């Protein structure tokens, strides 16, 4: 019974809204000596505004107009507008805030995230829902795995930790009855496959 009360915490800790800033954190964790403090703080601020503050403002607008009923946006139809909006925000980040020349690995992470979002959106029109939580946490896990190999920093515990978090997030979504096992698997595939494909570009 206690586990059922604890598991939903992971749905909030690893909410898709927070994944971009978490990816940014891991990127700079591996590149801590390569960027100035001003660059790091500036990018954190930009990503926070674009991927957390702006979508939250949209959420409250949609909530006020009755287009969504909760921050988890469980209903399939309610997900379309946020995913379309999210796609445009990723494009904005890729074009203005995360150029390939300055942040190569992070650029490809967001490019993969854009493709994952577009695939998830396309599936909605095919009346299929994917777990966005699993999409996000699996994408983050592959990204950190790639950073570990690429930079050979020896942070061997990060990937097992994130794999464990994948399990907790999946269990959390099942306990909350937000998704079926099939939707969790679809989300995992949508999140991890684009990241894996882009690994061949930047590794």
Describe this entry's structure for a reader:
The chain has nine helices and no strands. It has helices at residues 2-6, 8-13, 19-30, 37-64, 80-97, 104-125, 132-151, 158-175, 181-202. Helix 6 runs antiparallel to helix 9 (181-202).
Concise account of the structure shown:
This protein is mostly helical. The chain has helices spanning 2-6, 8-13, 19-30, 37-64, 80-97, 104-125, 132-151, 158-175, 181-202. α3 (19-30) runs antiparallel to α6, α6 (104-125) runs antiparallel to α9 (181-202) and α7 (132-151) runs antiparallel to α8.
Features:
single chain, 203 residues, mainly alpha, 9 helices, 74% helix
What level of helicity do the residues show? Answer: over 70%
- Write down how many β-strands occur, each being a DSSP E stretch of 2 or more residues: 0
CA-based gyration radius: 17 Å
Shape designation: globular
Number of helices: 9
H and E string: HHHHHHHHH
Portion of residues in beta strands equals under 5%
- Average pLDDT rating: 91
Ends: how far apart? 44 Å
- Characterize the quaternary organization of these chains: single chain
Largest sheet: none
SS content category:
mainly alpha
- Unreliable spans are none
SSE arrangement:
Elements (H helix, E strand, L loop, with lengths): L1 H5 L1 H6 L5 H12 L6 H28 L15 H18 L6 H22 L6 H20 L6 H18 L5 H22 L1
Helix pairs in contact: 3-4, 3-6, 3-7, 4-5, 5-6, 6-7, 6-9, 7-8, 7-9
């Amino acid at each position: 019974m206690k586990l059922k009360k604890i598991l939903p915490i992971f749905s909030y800790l690893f909410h898709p809204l927070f994944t971009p800033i978490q990816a940014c954190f891991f990127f700079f964790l591996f590149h801590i000596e390569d960027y100035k403090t001003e660059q790091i703080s500036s990018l954190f601020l930009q990503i926070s505004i674009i991927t957390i503050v702006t979508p939250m403002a949209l959420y409250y607008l949609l909530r006020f107009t009755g287009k969504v009923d909760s921050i988890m946006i469980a209903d399939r139809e309610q997900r379309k507008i946020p995913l379309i909006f999210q796609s445009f925000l990723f494009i904005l980040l890729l074009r203005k805030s995360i150029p390939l020349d300055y942040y190569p690995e992070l650029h490809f992470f967001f490019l993969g995230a854009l493709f994952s979002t577009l695939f998830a959106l396309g599936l909605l029109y095919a009346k299929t829902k994917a777990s966005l939580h699993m999409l996000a946490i699996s994408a983050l896990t592959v990204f950190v795995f790639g950073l570990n190999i690429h930079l050979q920093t020896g942070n061997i515990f990060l990937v097992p930790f994130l794999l464990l978090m994948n399990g907790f997030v999946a269990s959390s979504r099942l306990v909350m009855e937000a998704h079926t096992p099939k939707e969790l698997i679809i989300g995992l595939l949508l999140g991890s496959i684009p990241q894996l494909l882009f690994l061949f570009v930047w590794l």
